[in-house]
Amino acid sequence: MPVLGFNVTKIELERITLAVPQGQIEVRLSPKVKEMRLGEIRTPTGKLNGIEVLFRYEIDYNPKIAQGAIEGVILYVPPQKDRMDDILNLWEDEKKIDSLTFAEVVNFITKEISPILMLMAKEMRLPYHIPLPRVEVKPQPQ
Q: What global pTM score does this model have?
């Protein structure tokens, strides 16, 4: 597993209007990497170096009924440990992340954040960010 640690540092969700409009409501999720730096985690066998990734996961509704964000940090350890310097150098020089690292980080964050977003939407009576399965009863042919 390339991600060894995960912490949420800030959760905010603001309902802008009380009335939920009829029709199509678009929910847009925007994961963003704010910072990357060298980090470490203590394990029973000693310290393990990794990359601390500070993120902000924004949620916006269109029409504008609510907006919010979740911020946090993960400790990412690349599959090839020798790539750690390359990843950090690319970030420090150009503020870019290679596509493989970005995919692994964002997929992990999305997996961890989705249940929080579902709970927040439920508590604030907002549409969910992912569609829920629905059961439909079809008339039986006679």
A: 0.83
